[in-house]
């Protein structure tokens, strides 16, 4: 018994040790540190005035433009990329690539700092960030720990009922972040261009002679072979973008949903049959061509019979920033115009 | 029972059941996001036309209703078979862990092998279910399978597989996104495929069950009688278990794990006085269908937006109180002896005993050292200590002292508190299986925390308070029931299972009903030492550690006295009930402090006292310290592993403890087949 116990203890100890040694990262930190030193040396003294940025908790002041930024939610990384700034670290990079599709790519050298839900504090600390940007809903509980590492800005992409729309919030946060990296002009330009492209798209759609402007937007995935269908409500950012290009949301339902969609069944589609039906599905999980094909309750819907359904690519991100918004608006346009 | 009243009952059971089923079917068909007139529904069924309303009824609503009837029936029959063959009134596919095994197998397959559905899904589910059944059966001791032990083994296996499943869900958030709802069981169907797929299998299962009904009647008379009457008992047993697992896995592969139907329906039939398996099986099928369809109707009444509320949560919500009632009602009858003096443990060599505390202390200290210098960048013992003591590297020093050390200390303290709580419970209730999670206190804390988050929708900072209140309420309920059950150890364990199941159902309902990100709730529920700081340590843990632990130590004499048995304790002049209540309250407060900080981490409180007794013997004076040390060490090791195994991803420590702890506990149980339970 004694032997067994000792063996067990030793095995445990060894496994901890082995695991720890397995991640041989000590050299990289040193490198990072050296890099960091040269970086700050080069930049020091350029900025003199301080920057004041607000997040959902109030105002924070930065003495100089933060160089090393860690983002813990995709949309904020996207905002940075739009402004031509690469973060030094981000959460769940792999997931980002399969769900989000925007032009400036995330740099190869950006470090993964773990899952979006429980980002690795040590990895963040090791990057020695000047600022951390995160979503309040995910990280309220660890805000204190993040602030111990670096000044932290927390935003909330999903305003409560009556507290403004998701779209307004997106614009506001984008501008705040632009203020942080001192690229406010660029941000305004991007937003103006975005509004311009909405107008252009609206004209194109109108010119193409598409008269029916009603739409339903859905995101769907299968759960054990049966489709789960999300239908976007008026408060969703995606629906607001579609409204901006002159379309109208035909799906109406009671109640407020924070994230902007109802999770519902095929039956609800009947309420908006005369609209154009846009759906986002992952390529290998197209519930509409897989599970629902041949089902009369789907096939007999007016928009299916009259061929008004449009598949959007799987990496259409409806919860993103201005770049995702533009990509999304263009995808809708292309889908509509292709038919003509 | 007179013949006339038997006929009366039969008419009532089957006639009444059928009428009720038809009524529920009618209500069910009327529920949906589009309102369709009852006359249209009638026409759609009997005079279908090619129009959308009729299609909606025929292709969306009817399949859902029918699958509900089939699944409910199959689960009930599976429950009947399992109850008879294990001679265990509490057996069912969910209480024996078969569901969780099947479900884990399906999730595993869908992550690693690609979408498992239809045939392959059934095969995977069946394999998972069979493995679990064999495991439970072996662990509970085939020959003298004690009902309580069997259900307990089922519960531990469920905890283990749930830990594995959560692990997959945390790392493959997007791949398994759709599986969460299904994991609680849902009847959503979008065509007849599910029905077409399962109908033949369920029919085969049902017919098979009816064919062996006679053998089961014999089996119930006792194995010797059955053998005497020329039955091959072993063969009957194997066929029955195969059929039961088959029926359960068909339903898991189509609608996900739905608990408690297999428990409620057979008992309803037996309560009505039916004995013959032919009738019991048919009646259970009918009433199983009624229960499940009724639960689905209720789920959609509760959630009128038709965002799906998992029907499995509803059956647990109704079923768990039923389980508790069943246990209370049958107390003294079937669950074995009242007194179990099994705070056993073989006493090892005396030399060993002397060294236990020094060895553990050294180990604990070295874990702290290793833990402080281990993290994202591997192990850096020397650098770290140079940084701390010579102050030559501010960065490493901060990392060690602000990130790793508080986490380690939170883990250590929580571990100590949980272990002590388990130590008190096991002694005071004279129950080797008592620990804050087994008797339902942790699940109460979970409900409290989520209720605060959801209904109060207040800041996450207040979650610990919610957990604390939830734990205390759960404690009072457990004590009230336990008092009525005269604190019988086996009953208490079963009551705990019932209360845990009820708590989990409430948690599921809250998680689905609220807008909260499901993943974040899941992470918290699985227990985590993630990102714990000095604040948590000082706010929630230091106080209890300084105030409560010494108190526990001071009263540990009374714990030992109570452990000797009520009569002895009374003889020694102790007011047994009062002492027991206050000690248990103390244990709950101790546990609640830990749960409030790190969420629901199971097994530590269960295992630490066991290991201590294994090392020192049942009544050693160092038991208290050894238990506390062990608890701290277990959770610290889990913490170190949780942040180093898969950098930069974190694994919740609770899951690590479950993955290490469950097999250990099962081994312990297997060993204890030699002991009396």
From TrEMBL, chain A:
**By its UniProt entry, which Pfam families does this protein fall under?**
Peripla_BP_2
Gene source species: Gracilibacillus salitolerans
UniProt-listed Gene3D superfamilies: Nitrogenase molybdenum iron protein domain
Q: What processes does the entry annotate via GO biological process terms? A: iron coordination entity transport
Quick one: where's region Disordered?
A: 25-51
Instruction: Tell me how this protein sits in the membrane.
Output: Lipid-anchor
Q: What is this protein called?
A: ABC transporter substrate-binding protein
GO CC, alphabetical:
outer membrane-bounded periplasmic space; plasma membrane
Automatic annotation (TrEMBL), chain B:
Task: Tell me which Pfam families the record gives.
Answer: FecCD
Where is it predominantly found? membrane
Swiss-Prot/TrEMBL keywords: Cell membrane, Membrane, Transmembrane, Transmembrane helix, Transport
Q: Where in the cell is it found?
A: Cell membrane
Cross-referenced Gene3D superfamilies, in alphabetical order? ABC transporter involved in vitamin B12 uptake, BtuC (1.10.3470.10)
List cellular component terms (GO).
plasma membrane
Question: What CDD domains does the record point to?
Answer: TM_ABC_iron-siderophores_like
Q: Where is the signal peptide?
A: none
User: Its membrane topology, per UniProt?
Assistant: Multi-pass membrane protein
Q: Which residues cross the membrane?
A: 6-27, 65-85, 105-138, 150-172, 192-213, 241-265, 277-299, 311-328, 355-372, 405-425, 437-455, 462-483, 489-512, 537-556, 581-611, 623-645, 651-669
Q: Which GO terms describe its biological process?
A: siderophore-iron import into cell
Kindly give the InterPro entries that the UniProt entry links to this protein: ABC_BtuC-like (IPR037294), ABC_transptr_permease_BtuC (IPR000522)
Sample GO molecular function, one term = transmembrane transporter activity
Q: Which family does it belong to?
A: Belongs to the binding-protein-dependent transport system permease family. FecCD subfamily.
**Annotated PANTHER family:** ABC TRANSPORTER PERMEASE PROTEIN MJ0876-RELATED, FERRIC ENTEROBACTIN TRANSPORT SYSTEM PERMEASE PROTEIN
What is the recorded name of this protein?
Iron chelate uptake ABC transporter family permease subunit
Name its species: Gracilibacillus salitolerans
């Amino acid at each position: 018994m004694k032997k067994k116990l000792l063996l067990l203890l030793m095995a445990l100890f060894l496994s901890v040790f082995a695991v720890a040694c397995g991640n041989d990262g000590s050299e990289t930190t040193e490198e990072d540190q050296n890099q960091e030193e040269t970086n700050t040396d080069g930049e020091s003294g350029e900025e003199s005035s301080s920057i004041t940025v607000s997040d959902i908790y109030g105002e924070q002041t930065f003495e100089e433009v933060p160089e090393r930024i860690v983002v813990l939610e995709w949309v904020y990384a996207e905002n940075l990329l739009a402004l031509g700034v690469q973060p030094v670290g981000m959460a769940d990079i792999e997931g980002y690539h399969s769900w989000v599709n925007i032009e400036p790519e995330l740099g190869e050298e950006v470090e993964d700092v773990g899952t979006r839900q429980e980002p690795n504090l040590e990895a963040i600390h090791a990057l020695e960030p000047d600022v951390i940007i995160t979503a309040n809903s995910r990280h309220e509980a660890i805000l204190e720990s993040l602030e111990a590492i670096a000044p932290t800005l927390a935003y909330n992409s999903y305003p409560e009922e009556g507290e403004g729309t998701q779209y307004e919030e997106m614009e506001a946060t984008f501008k705040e972040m632009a203020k942080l990296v001192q690229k406010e002009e660029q941000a305004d330009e991007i937003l103006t261009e975005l509004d311009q492209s909405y107008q252009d798209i609206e004209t194109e759609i109108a010119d193409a002679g598409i008269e029916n402007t009603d739409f339903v937007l859905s995101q769907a995935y299968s759960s054990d072979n049966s489709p789960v269908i999300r239908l976007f409500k008026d408060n969703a950012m995606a629906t607001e973008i579609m409204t901006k290009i002159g379309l109208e949301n035909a799906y109406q339902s009671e109640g407020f949903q924070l994230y902007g969609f109802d999770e519902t069944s095929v039956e609800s589609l009947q309420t908006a049959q005369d609209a154009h039906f846009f759906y986002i599905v992952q390529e290998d999980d197209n519930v509409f061509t897989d599970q629902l094909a041949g089902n009369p309750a789907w096939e007999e819907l007016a928009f299916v019979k009259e061929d008004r359904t449009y598949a959007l690519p799987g990496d259409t991100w409806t919860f993103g920033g201005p770049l995702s918004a533009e990509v999304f608006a263009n995808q809708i346009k292309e889908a509509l115009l292709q038919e003509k | 029972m007179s013949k006339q009243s038997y006929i009366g009952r039969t008419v009532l059971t089957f006639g009444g059941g059928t009428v009720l089923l038809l009524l529920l079917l009618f209500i069910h068909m009327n529920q949906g996001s589009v309102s369709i007139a009852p006359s249209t529904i009638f026409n759609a069924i009997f005079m279908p036309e090619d129009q959308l309303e009729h299609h909606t009824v025929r292709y969306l609503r009817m399949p859902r209703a029918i699958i509900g009837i089939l699944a409910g029936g199959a689960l009930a029959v599976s429950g009947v078979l399992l109850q008879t063959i294990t001679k265990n009134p509490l057996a069912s596919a969910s209480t024996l862990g078969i569901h969780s095994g099947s479900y884990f197998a399906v999730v595993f397959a869908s992550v690693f092998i690609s979408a498992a559905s239809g045939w392959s899904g059934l095969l995977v589910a069946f394999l998972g279910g069979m493995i679990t059944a064999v495991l439970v059966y072996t662990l509970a001791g085939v020959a003298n399978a004690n009902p309580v032990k069997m259900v307990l083994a089922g519960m531990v296996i469920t905890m283990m597989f749930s830990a594995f499943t959560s692990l997959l869900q945390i790392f493959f958030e997007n791949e398994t996104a759709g599986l969460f709802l299904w994991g609680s069981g849902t009847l959503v169907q979008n065509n007849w495929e599910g029905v077409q797929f399962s109908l033949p299998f369920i029919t085969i299962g049902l017919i098979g069950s009816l064919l062996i009904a006679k053998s089961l009647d014999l089996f119930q008379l006792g194995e010797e009688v059955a053998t005497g009457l020329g039955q091959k008992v072993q063969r009957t047993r194997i066929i029955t278990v195969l059929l039961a697992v088959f029926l359960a896995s068909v339903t898991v592969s189509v609608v996900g794990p739905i608990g408690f139907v297999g428990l409620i329906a057979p008992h309803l039939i037996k309560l009505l006085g039916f004995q013959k398996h032919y009738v019991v099986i048919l009646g259970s099928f009918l009433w199983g269908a009624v229960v499940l369809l009724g639960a689905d109707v209720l789920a959609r009444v509760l959630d009128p937006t038709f965002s799906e509320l998992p029907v499995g949560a509803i059956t647990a919500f109704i079923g768990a109180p039923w389980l508790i009632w069943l246990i209370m009602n049958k107390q003294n009858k079937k669950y074995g002896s009242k007194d179990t003096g099994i705070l056993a443990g073989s006493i090892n060599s005396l030399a060993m005993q002397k060294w236990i505390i020094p060895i553990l202390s050294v180990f604990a200290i070295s874990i702290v050292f290793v833990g402080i210098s281990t993290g994202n960048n591997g192990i850096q013992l020397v650098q770290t200590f140079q940084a701390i003591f010579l102050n030559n590297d501010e960065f490493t020093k901060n990392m060690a002292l602000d990130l790793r050390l508080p986490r380690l200390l939170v883990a250590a303290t929580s571990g100590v508190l949980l272990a002590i709580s388990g130590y008190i419970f096991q002694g005071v209730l004279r129950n080797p299986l008592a620990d804050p999670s087994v008797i339902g206190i942790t699940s109460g804390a979970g409900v409290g925390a989520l209720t605060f988050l959801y209904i109060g929708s207040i800041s996450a900072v207040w979650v610990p308070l919610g957990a604390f209140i939830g734990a205390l309420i759960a404690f009072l309920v457990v004590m009230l029931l336990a008092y009525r059950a005269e604190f019988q150890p086996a009953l208490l364990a079963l009551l705990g299972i019932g209360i845990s199941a009820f708590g989990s159902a409430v948690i599921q309902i809250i998680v689905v009903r609220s807008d909260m990100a499901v993943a974040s709730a899941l992470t918290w529920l699985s227990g985590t030492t993630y990102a714990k700081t000095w604040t948590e340590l000082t706010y929630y843990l230091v106080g209890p550690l300084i105030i409560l632990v010494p108190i526990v130590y001071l009263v540990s004499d009374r714990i030992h006295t109570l452990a000797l048995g009520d009569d002895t304790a009374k003889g020694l002049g102790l007011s047994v009930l009062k002492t027991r209540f206050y000690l248990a309250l103390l244990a709950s407060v101790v546990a609640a402090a830990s749960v409030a900080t790190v969420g629901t981490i199971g097994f530590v409180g269960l295992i630490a006292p066991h290991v201590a007794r294994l090392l020192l013997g049942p009544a050693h004076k160092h038991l208290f310290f050894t238990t506390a040390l062990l608890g701290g060490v277990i959770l610290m090791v889990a913490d170190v592993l949780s942040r180093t195994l898969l950098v930069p991803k974190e694994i919740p420590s609770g899951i690590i403890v479950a993955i290490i702890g469950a097999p250990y506990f099962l081994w312990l149980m297997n060993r204890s087949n030699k002991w009396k339970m």
